[in-house]
Amino acid sequence: MSRFVAFLLLVLAACTADRPTEGAGLLIRGARLADGTGGPLRDADVRVVDGLVAEVGAAGSLEPSPGDSVLDASGLVLAPGFVDTHSHHDRGLADDPSAREAVSQGITTIVAGQDGGSPSPLSDFFAGLEAAPAALNVASYVGHNTLRHQVLGEDYRRPADADEVAAMVALLGAEMEAGALGLSTGLEYDPGIYSTTDEVLALARVTADRGGRYISHMRSEDRAFEAALDELLHIGQVTGMPVQVSHMKLAMKSLWGRAGEALARMDSARARGVDVTADVYPYPYWQSSMTVLLPERDFTDRAAFAFALDELVPPEGFLVAAFAPDPSYVGLRLDSIARLRGTDPVSAYMALVAEAEAWQGDGRAEGMIGTSMAEEDIETLLQWPHTNIASDGGLADRHPRGAGTYPRVLGRYVRERGVLDLAEAVHKMTGLAAAHVGIRDRGTVAPGQAADLVLFDPETVADRATPDDPTALAVGIHRVWVNGVEVWRDGQATGARPGRVLRRAS
User: What is the pTM of this model?
Assistant: First the structure.
C-alpha cells in the first residue's frame, strides 16, 4: 500500500468517525427540556437520527428503535446548542478545530466576521472549513473594514470617494454570493472610523437588496453613544433590513444607569417598523485596543488620555492584555505600570500607546481589558425582550468571555440572581439568537431541526474563567452535540469534527 493511499484511508476513517451511523439514533430520556422557544420547561424524551431531531415526546413516551443508543438525562436540562451571534472563536480553529473554549460552554454555532473584520475571501474561508471541518458550525458576516482596507489600503484616513464606494460594493456582492449573513461594521476602529454614514448606507442598501442583515460595533459606546445609536436606527429605517447592536453597553460613567433610556429609544424605533435588536455579554469589562478610547486618534492630546481614564476606564480597571514592546506588562493594570515607571497613570498610558505605535514587529502591538460598565445596566440589557446572549470571545483569549459567557449567565444571572428565568435565558442563547442572524434550522428542539444540543446541570453550571485565568473551563456542561455528533463529554472534547458552514438562507 502506497503512503498516499494509506493517507486517504486515514482521512476517510476520520471523516466517517464524525458522522452518526445512517439510520441509528440516540434517545435522550427524561431530560428537563428547554426547547429554545422561551416556553416552560417540561420533562421530555428526544430522539436524534442522522443529525436531526426526529421525535420529541413526553418523558417515558418514546421507545428506542433497533440500534439506538439510550442516554438517561434525569435531573439535567436539555437545550438547543447555543448560537453565538458575535464570536471571534473562528480565529483559532486552524490550530484547535475542537474549539475547546467554545464547545465546553455549550456553543454549537459561531457567527464570525464581526466588528467590521471578516475572513477574505469568504469563499476560500468556507471551502477550507468544508475540507477540514471544525467541531462546531460557522457562519459569517462580511466586514466593512475588510472591504475598506482592500480598496483604500493605507490611505484610509478620509471618506471614500464614489469610485471607491463602488469598488467596495462589488467586493461586498461577491461575499454575499458566497453566503455571508450580511454586513458588519466596526465604526470605532480603523479604517471604518473615517467612513461617512453615506458610505456605510451605500453598502447597507446592497446588503438589504440581497436579503442580508446589518450588525454593528457602533461608532461610540461612550461619548457619542446616542448619535451612534441614531446612525444604526437610521440605517434600519432606510434599508428596511434587520439591524443589530453588537455587544451593547454604556461604557462611560455619565451614562451609567441609563440603559432603560436607550432601550426606550429602540422600542420607539421598533414601533416605527425598524427591526432593531441587540446582543450583550455578562461582564462589566471589555477587550479591545488601547487606542479605541481616543476617537480623534491624536496620541499627543494629554487631555484626551486624561478624559479616558477619568470617565471611561480608571487606571485600576485598565488591564494590559497584549503589549509586544514589553510582554512583561501583560496581566498588569495601568496603575501598577505607572508605579513601576515612577510616573502618573496618564503619562504611563501615553507612553504605552507611543511605544506600541512605534513598534515594528509582526502581529498585534497592544491590547487591553477595560472595566467601564455598571452591573445595573448589564441586567437591564439582559432583560430586554429583543436582546440575545453572545460572547464576543475567542479561543485562548485574554478575556474570560471566550470560555465562560454562557455558563456565567446560567449560573450567575439565572440561578444566583434571578435576573432571567431559565427558559428565557435559554431562548436568548438559542431560538432568539438564531432568529437575530437569520439561521433557520437551529436554535430550537423540534422535529426536523438540526440536532445541535447541550445537556447541563442547572444546579452546578458556572463559569470559572477570570482575567487572570481566562481559559479556565466551565463546570456543569455535561454533553454537547453538533449535527447529532457528540463533541463534548464530561469535561473532554471527543475529537469529532461534525461542524458545517452555514450560509445565508435564501
Answer: 0.94
